[in-house]
Amino acid sequence: MSLLLFIAALVGIVVFAMVVNRLTGTTSKYLDAFQLEPGEQERWRDIAADVALVPRLGRAVFMSFSRLRRHTVVWSDRRIVVAQKGLFSKRRVITHQIHFADNHGADGAAANKAALEFGGGFYGRGFQTIIAQSWSFGQRNQKDCVCVEPTEACGAAQNIGEVLIFTDRLADLEQCLQTAR
What we know:
Blueprint: H1 2-24, E1 42-54, E2 71-76, E3 79-85, E4 92-100, H2 108-115, H3 122-125, E5 128-140, E6 143-150, H4 152-158, E7 162-166, H5 170-180
Parallel strand pairs: 4-5
Antiparallel strand pairs: 1-2, 1-7, 2-3, 3-4, 5-6, 6-7
């Protein structure tokens, strides 16, 4: 009997999620269908990276970041796109877009608005949008990474202290970003 109740609860959660997605117009955005804006240039891509969102409030005293190499990160001159492969899928779903505060692209105004909404604009856009004010190279738990700092308003609205991008190709990224400056 308890197994039947458990299965009924799972079905109820799935049906509720489908109704919410239908009402808000949320659909998955796939990386293979992703296109850069006119004038935007891809600078760097890694298909074996890891991304961690570190909360501003309520974070653990000691945090560890495992390297499962399950994210794809595309860094352009206007934004960072993060995608992740689903459990039984061959396609990568966009989970985050990190726009830079000085972004003046076609999607910049919509991104600024979405970043301050509930869930970072996930409902309606299909991915979380973060507005970043700066990035730097650093280390967390003796692992090299890129530390992306959100703007004060975005960080407070979404409880994000920093976004960490771990990659084995950090030297390539550093070289690409230095030549672009």
